[in-house]
Amino acid sequence: MTDERRLPDPLPLIPFLPPGSAVVVRHRDAGEATRIATDILPAAHRHGVAVLISQATPPARLICDGVHIPESALLNWKACDLARLGPGLVTASAHSAGAVMKAGRLGADAVLLSPVFATESHRHARALGLNRFAAIVRRAGVPVIALGGVTETRIRRLLHAGAAGIAGIGLFHPEKGMP
Question: Is the whole-model pTM more than 0.85?
Answer without folding.
Answer: yes
